[in-house]
């Protein structure tokens, strides 16, 4: 590949340029670089680890499923059909994977400075051994190298899992999922720890277009009369217990807002009745989701599952794209999100319970210093999840630390989680987080706000101990 | 001027103090420092270039028209009358320009650290060759030097335009403007490229006190019956075509919010009827502005004019000042601004149109990472204008880049525009933007997130290519 | 104390690690490090200075009264009873102060990187001469050293006041306070200047559970018929005059929002009538507080007291904790806060008055660049208080400067105030503020945006001159 620009992963990447801080950051990072990966919140496909089949090719593995990548191409005029993105009707433009990859390569400059470029270059360099930059002229070289490697045993999912030094990874499943893949993993005798997490949104959100069918199926799978409020709650309890038996230690809730409610039994029944009858207004739906969150907290107190709340996203904002290509096509847009009033009903009931843990995420960074750090720095049950989704980038991580430290400290946060379905990027993502935390700590040490031995302990806590503690792993 | 403090413009100003980053920043800046100025959005007076008459004196040129300057003096107790600021009744306190300038000089310390001081010192040093600081003791020296220079041929508007290496500058005019000055420039044979932009706010905002008269005049000037909805729309189309024929490549919309609407024809007619009859409520007015934005987008699809939206300012907040001195006296205050719901009606219609471009600005920085970068990083029609107005400062530019990079990248932004009526400050403003972008890029390079050749390309794109592409120049 | 980690206060702490900036910061700091402390807004107990009795022990002085410290312990599961925090019924768990201190020491790592650790380590090191870190093994050493010192004459309140080089300190009292402690200080012949500030919230907030009794007492103490609107206003005027006679130069208002109102006399009477009869709704209460703020501004114009407004906190958010332990237990959480519309009624009346000063604080940092700096950079009556409460930390101070500088400059801010009841931490807090301001200024100098002589002047203004000017001290 002569004549091409070199691709390098500098050993000091993401460290402060200042020599003093860089030296400290290096020493801190040396202590955490090789710690096992704890990935308590993610969206990989358990079927990969159950079946251990090879991934198909570069395009199908790295481009087509990753809406964080193709959203950027789309934003600059690349048609989704030109990339072979599947449509919601099941069809797909007849595009050669090679051709789609070339289009990606030609536009790779769009990712300059973004976290996608950090992750992708890490994958290219460390996993596939590529040493030239991705660009028009190297597109075929990339495609062939990656696709070829994927056919070898070392690139099967389990081999990569082991190579990545993953101690435990959680996937996320709907209550309707029979968890057969997890059972298959367990029964296979393979030592990799792949657990599930309980994500009940499909049976919690009355505004989801498939809610009636999902609710119906929820009843069938649990044997409860889920069209009554008590039966509905029993079904959740039953399903949570099953998920826990398959390794789950947490639940996950992706709501439009952080609203919680604490209705009386009679109010809740009446509300549920409207939901079941399909006559819930938007406000009813919001209240129902809010009430279910509080019910979930009550169940967590009993079954010990850690609760996660990810509010504040307008899903499928692009109407035309949604109609043609369906969900999860890069058109989810964050919303301003309020926590102080929203969480009070739930916290009034469970905020001081020693056995309860609620991990909060946000897409509204203005809440870090104003609402989230003060809440987490007070309530024993509250912890802050890391900089999430659009903010899972060096700048976003840095703002998270800078804006939560004063009121929340380090120990009301839960370390890093990758939140990704892009399996190959997991080491890169944890590496970025570890580097940024070490860089941040190095600044504190260089400013004499922390001694280096303390910073080392914090770095190890953030990279490894806090996620294990927070998620009971 | 012995005994006075020296005024210097350090060649490394605004670069990171760290030696490694500074060296990179210098190299990047060397590539962009002398690129021509592209100024696609501004408020200079085309009459300056048409008539090419000399500017009057230091006070009339640099102090009286610049409400960013006199607002700061006013905030510390300097009366507007003491500066000779014209009142809304056309009168003006009898103040010697010399005396007003002295008052300015005595209070110049108030600007320490502000962008005004960066721009003014650049103008003083580079354009007028001043080498002592502006302060009480140097006030007369300044006044005389500047006023004297302004009488010479080299300080006439066209000479400065050429000296500033301006490739193209856009002014902003109301649809009611006959564009005679632009015609005079065109007919003069002078080679300077001064174009207009279509700013229809006076005939779009029913809450403007002169709306009825403006609408009347809009009908006269276009020959359309603008008191009917179809006639009103036809008048816009006609006027936009005329503006385009005079060089305009964009429209500009300064609204209180980012609201857009997509009413049916019947709803729009009914709404317009209320507006015309002067019975529109505040909510009607908001909805009308919202609907017109969507209509403007539809027209942009046809005539190719790039659309700019600058929402989120409470104009003329200071009641007493407004009554006495009128508009634009430094009392405009930014408001919290929502984009995700607000823009959806317009984006649902035109967001995926290849031929449509909407450039968004904000005064609410909390929207950068939460709303604007995710929107621009998805919709092909959306681009982000630079850090604007109150945020057009080194810190504001830095926050813009830091908070839009992860989701929007560099290529969904449109480079810099100066948005100013302070003609002499234009080179200073572009220089600050170029320096800050180079400093930001130098950090990425020093942290090994970008190679220097890539950073060089980005720097040139931001300074020159992206504004030309975004504004079709 | 062999075997323990060393506690050091590095002379360069909080300065930028970069050698160039650090050198500048050192020089700037050398000019301000020993300036007297001006503390115009705080919550120390005037009884300390009146009685000059020794403080009891380490736990009672440093842990039990400081809800910023015990909130962090509580957030990680330490029960308030285990620390001996008094309950609202007057009882208190039987906990040895020694034991509570040990619990604090064991958990001191929770404070890593927080401002509490900066302040506490400063107190430990500089005031008590401790040279090992606080941790489990040094808990008793700490307790004994601190408690022992407190019994000596040099650690009595007045001796510490003098040692701290406090030029003037303001406490905060309710209108119902007879100011006997202040009278005792004045009559004692001691030269320390301890003044009061007028904080009328208990008789202004109809939602305070003790409002009816407070209003009753307000009438008794002033001899006015405070159940009529004119009498109520007269009572304020009378009480403000008394406070001014006891040294007060300011009033202080802690409201849930920044709302102000400008009702007609008839409207205000009708509203007050509802308040007095106990039938005010939440909206009435909000409007009443809003109206009283405007009345207070009117009185400030007459009596010259500087007005302070601290809005935007949800007090006592934790219901269970409030019921058991009462107010001020670390469960106050900031709220999103709007200023532009909220302040307009008051500013329309008094915003341009030369004799009026309103100092604004915020817990919503998103308002700094968007609303507060533009307001303060225009209105002659408005000034910005420093980064407050949850934001009184190096990162918070830095964000305050970075986000207010462009529109507000340095001179529309009022320098630092400590806002604390933790008397011993006052030197540490002012030292942190001075260091951070010098670090910020050093960056501007290193980037050639300010000359060092200008930065020195600004540093001295921020540390000493501006608070004196703003608070008329």
Brief account:
Chain A folds into two domains: 19-52 and 156-470, Alpha-Beta Barrel (TIM Barrel); 54-155, uronate isomerase, domain 2, chain A. Chain A is built from 19 helices and nine strands. Chain A has helices at 19-32, 46-51, 58-63, 67-75, 97-106, 115-127, 139-150, 157-163, 180-188, 211-222, 229-245, 265-276, 282-303, 319-325, 344-350, 367-376, 394-408, 426-446, 452-470; strands at 37-39, 166-170, 194-195, 250-253, 306-309, 313-314, 333-334, 358-360, 382-384.
Structural summary, described in words:
3 copies of one chain form a homotrimer. By secondary structure, chain A is mainly α. The first copy, chain A, has 2 domains: 19-52 and 156-470, Metal-dependent hydrolases (TIM Barrel), CATH 3.20.20.140; 54-155, uronate isomerase, domain 2, chain A (Orthogonal Bundle). Chain A has 19 helices and 9 strands. The first copy, chain A, has helices at 19-32, 46-51, 58-63, 67-75, 97-106, 115-127, 139-150, 157-163, 180-188, 211-222, 229-245, 265-276, 282-303, 319-325, 344-350, 367-376, 394-408, 426-446, 452-470, and strands at residues 37-39, 166-170, 194-195, 250-253, 306-309, 313-314, 333-334, 358-360, 382-384. The first copy, chain A, has a 4-stranded parallel β-sheet, with helices on one face. In chain A, strands 1-2-3 form a 3-stranded parallel β-sheet. Chains B and C meet through helix 4, helix 6, helix 14, strand 7 and helix 17 of B and helix 15, helix 16, helix 17, helix 18 and helix 19 of C. Chains A, B, C: It is an enzyme of class 5 (isomerase). Chains A, B, C: Pfam families: UxaC.
């Amino acid at each position: 590949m002569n004549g091409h620009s070199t691709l390098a992963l500098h050993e000091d990447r993401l460290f402060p340029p200042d020599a003093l801080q860089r030296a400290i950051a290096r020493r801190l990072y040396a202590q955490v670089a090789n710690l096992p990966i704890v990935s308590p919140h993610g969206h990989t496909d358990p079927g990969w680890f159950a079946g251990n089949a090879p991934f198909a090719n570069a395009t199908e593995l790295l481009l087509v499923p990753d809406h964080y990548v193709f959203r950027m191409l789309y934003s600059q005029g690349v048609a989704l059909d030109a990339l072979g993105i599947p449509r919601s009707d099941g069809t797909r433009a007849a595009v050669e994977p090679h051709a789609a990859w070339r289009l990606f390569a030609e536009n790779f400059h769009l990712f300059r400075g973004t976290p996608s470029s950090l992750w992708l270059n890490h994958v290219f360099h460390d996993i596939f051994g590529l040493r030239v930059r991705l660009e028009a002229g190297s597109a075929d070289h990339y495609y062939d190298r990656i696709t070829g490697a994927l056919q070898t045993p070392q690139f099967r999912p389990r081999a990569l899992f082991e190579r990545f030094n993953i101690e435990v990874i959680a996937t996320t499943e709907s209550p309707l999922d029979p968890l057969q893949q997890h059972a298959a993993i367990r029964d296979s005798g393979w030592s990799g720890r792949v657990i599930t997490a309980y994500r009940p949104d499909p049976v919690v959100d009355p505004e989801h277009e498939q809610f009636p069918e999902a609710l119906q199926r929820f009843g069938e799978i649990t044997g409860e009369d889920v069209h009554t409020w008590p039966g509905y709650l029993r079904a959740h309890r039953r399903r949570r217990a099953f998920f826990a038996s398959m390794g789950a230690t947490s639940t996950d809730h992706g709501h439009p807002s952080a609203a919680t409610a604490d209705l009386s039994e009679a109010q809740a029944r009446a509300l549920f009745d409207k939901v079941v009858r399909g006559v819930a207004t938007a406000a009813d739906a919001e209240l129902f989701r809010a009430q279910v969150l509080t019910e979930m907290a009550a169940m967590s107190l009993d079954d010990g599952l850690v609760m996660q709340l990810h509010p504040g996203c307008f899903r499928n904002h692009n109407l035309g794209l949604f109609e043609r290509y369906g969900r999860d096509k890069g058109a989810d847009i964050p919303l301003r999100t309020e926590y102080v009033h929203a969480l009070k009903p739930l916290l009034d009931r469970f905020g001081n319970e020693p056995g309860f843990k609620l991990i909060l995420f946000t897409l509204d960074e203005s809440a870090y210093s104003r609402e989230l750090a003060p809440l987490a720095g007070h309530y024993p049950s509250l912890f802050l999840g890391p900089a999430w989704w659009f903010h899972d980038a060096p700048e976003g991580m840095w703002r998270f630390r800078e804006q939560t430290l004063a009121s929340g400290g380090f120990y009301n946060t839960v370390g890093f989680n990758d939140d990704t379905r892009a399996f190959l990027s997991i080491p890169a993502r944890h590496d970025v987080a570890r580097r940024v935390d070490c860089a941040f700590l190095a600044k504190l040490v260089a400013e004499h706000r922390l001694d280096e031995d303390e910073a080392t302990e914090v770095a190890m806590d953030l990279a490894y101990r806090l996620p294990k503690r927070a998620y009971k792993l």
